[in-house]
Amino acid sequence: MHGEAKGQSVTLRELRERTEAVVNDRVTQNAEGVDAECSWPADSLNALAETGLLGLHVPVRFGGLEQGMEGLVTITETIAKACSSTALCYAMHCVGTAVIAAKATMPQVERYLKPIAAGKHITTLALSEGGTGAHFYLPQTRLEQKDGTFCLDGTKEFVTNGGHADSYVVSTVAAEYGAEPGEFSCVLVDRDAPGVKWTGGWRGLGMRGNASQTMQLKQVNITQENLLGERGDQVWYVFEVVAPYFLTAMAATYLGIATTALDSVVDHVRLRKHTHSGESLAELSTVQHDIARLWSEVERTRLLIYDAARLGDLGRADALPSIFAAKIAAAETATLLTNEAMTLAGGIAYRDNSRLARLLRDARAAHVMSPTTGLLKQWLGRTLLDLPLF
Question: What's the Rg (C-alpha) of the chain?
């Protein structure tokens, strides 16, 4: 496992080529087993680590690649074309890394960022809670200060990489229950911290390898060094780092799913022939129209996602609406493409859990993964109308 040499930069083209090599060599061959066995994609993530891709958002001076959202979209889409679960696990690690790197202290650089860049440490987000649902920015997990240290109590749901990551970015209330929105904090909890317990192994309809588990925190003691930024910074982290990086990464994941579904059905209609006439499905005008429509949907979504990522990297004021729209479009396109592809492929697609069936199941998560499509549409509308998000 290794990171980039200090001072070395990498282009988006090089990132894509490097990722494609890993995908072709390891990720693709693991994908079917990851889905069938609901197994966390350890070998695929190890392959990404060995290729130096875990440090995507770590600054170059600390051994990382120092890439932004466009780099994240490039890699995540490439992985998702082969294995959606691996793409999700990798994306959550990257978003967690971006959160740590945003205001990292030197002890956090040494303890987390440098090992991440070296491919020796995986992190992830632990934000969602059962009581607040899609409103992941309203944590109820308590953070109390005791004699210069902090004590955590609460439960986090749907933690991707749960039990496998080496550290977790946990959102907390910085005061008692009932504190005003904005009085939050983000803290780092190590995998082996006393008081951390994992329950509820994930066997979902789709994204079956993401190890989405429940994290129980009971009197978990952490030091000042585990606090990210200042107390009350959590809202800043959510809308300046978590939302932009997470939404673009998820949009790219579902773009990868849609692209593979399109490629699969194009191959199918080209090769499928009627024995009574010798005519291929590709020669039917209705099929040609369907393929044209689906290709257009994918390409429109692709342009929106990559443009949103570029705007985000430039720090443009109009980036956030585009990022909201990118995840909305990706969710709608992925579900449309997988549904239509199943129909065009016919009964063959329903046999023995075909690849298209797996893509269909994975795509369906797009609408319910927080922030949900409904919530994002509300945020987008409020933003365009110059209304506060909340």
Answer: 21
Tell me how crowded residue 303 is: count the other CB atoms within 10 A of its CB.
Answer: 12
Q: Does domain 12-122 have CATH number 1.10.540.10?
A: yes
Output the CA–CA distances (angstroms, integers) from residue 317 to 187, 314, 323, in the order listed. Answer: 28, 9, 11
Question: Is it the case that residue 5 has pLDDT exceeding 90?
Answer: no
Is the pLDDT at 325 greater than 80? The verdict is yes
Q: Which CATH superfamily is domain 126-232 in?
A: Butyryl-CoA Dehydrogenase, subunit A, domain 2 (2.40.110.10)
Exposure string of 369-379, with b = 16+ CB inside 10 Å and e = fewer, is: bbbbbebbeeb
- pLDDT 10s digits, 135-189: 777 788 988 887 778 899 999 999 999 999 999 999 988 544 455 554 567 899 9
Identify whether the C-beta of residue 232 lies closer than 8 Å to the C-beta of residue 178: no
101-148: per-residue pLDDT in tens?
999 999 999 999 999 999 999 999 999 998 777 777 778 898 888 777
CB atoms within 10 A of CB 96: 29
As a three-state string, the secondary structure of 258-276 is HHHHHHHHHHHHHHCECCC
Supply the mean pLDDT for the chain: 91
